[in-house]
Amino acid sequence: MERLSVVIITYNEERNLARCLESVLPVADEIVVLDSFSTDHTVEIAESYGAVVYQQKFLGYIAQKNKALSLATSNYVLSLDADEELSKTLQQSILKVKKGGYAFKAYKMNRCANFCGKFIRHGAWYPEPKVRLFDRRVLNWGGLDPHDRVIVPATTAVCPLKGDLLHYICSTVGELKRRNDNFSTIAARSLYRAGRRTNWLKILASPAWFFINDLFIRKGILNGYRGWQIAVNQARYHFLKYLKLYRLQKKPDFTVIKTNQPAEKKPVSHISS
């Protein structure tokens, strides 16, 4: 059976990491953690699960995740965030893939967010297909920070897996707001560096469209009050992202927009490394 390396980037993830590592033990032949000099017990937790821990300054989500890939010793990797967890069904799907000898170069799974203690089954947050199991010789991370994604060549087939990747995104609404404040800054800077520009029409239309699409077209309203909170806060995120991009257009000085930490990932979960 071909080996599988699980790779995770971390920064102050003591709240989430044990849950993540516990879930990958049945499938992992190696666990690699790339940490960004955490100041809590993240490193100790990782080592207690047998992980090989490396540390380096946070380079950005994409660069950090690609560095983590390079530290793995297996060809196939399962790349996770510290605030994610394999469901039992997904564990079995991955074990089946391993026993079958990896018939594909890339495998995708649906991600299901846990927001304020409730799993979200409708709207823009579900299903959220993610390629996370792949051959690192063929695929790597790309996109624009903080919204990284695995880049799949047009000629590469992607096999869907049964079972959800559980994502413990935020435990409070305040946490989601702080996350969005931070992510909107990172996203605006990334868009600006990539040559993207905006205007007042997009600043106003983008959040309005997200709200309508998430709550009504994608039926986020079926999530109840939590669905409403998600739609409102994510619409606010889109507004802030394009407003900050507009401010950079007018004054291309990155000190104009502030960020809380070097690069906080999923609210408190910083896939730093």
Explain this structure to me?
Strands 1, 2, 3, 4, 5, 6, 7, 8 and 11 form a nine-stranded mixed sheet that branches. Helix content is 38%, strand content 25%. The chain folds into two domains: 4-170, Spore Coat Polysaccharide Biosynthesis Protein SpsA, Chain A (Alpha-Beta Complex), CATH 3.90.550; 173-250, no CATH class. It is an alpha/beta fold. Helix 1 links the parallel strand 1 and strand 2 (30-35). Mean pLDDT is 94; it is low at 260-273. The protein contains seven helices and eleven strands. Helix 5 runs parallel beside helix 7 and helix 6 (200-217) runs antiparallel to helix 7.
The helical percent reads 25-40%
* Classification by helices and strands: alpha/beta
Task: Please identify, by name, the CATH architecture of the largest domain.
Answer: Alpha-Beta Complex
Q: Return the average pLDDT rounded to an integer.
A: 94
Question: Are there runs of 5+ residues with pLDDT below 50, and where?
Answer: 260-273
Strand runs, count: 11
| Biggest beta sheet attributes | 9 strands, mixed
Q: What is the terminal-to-terminal distance?
A: 30 Å
- Tally of structural domains: 2
Q: Which shape, going by the Cα principal axes?
A: globular
Helix count from the secondary structure assignment: 7
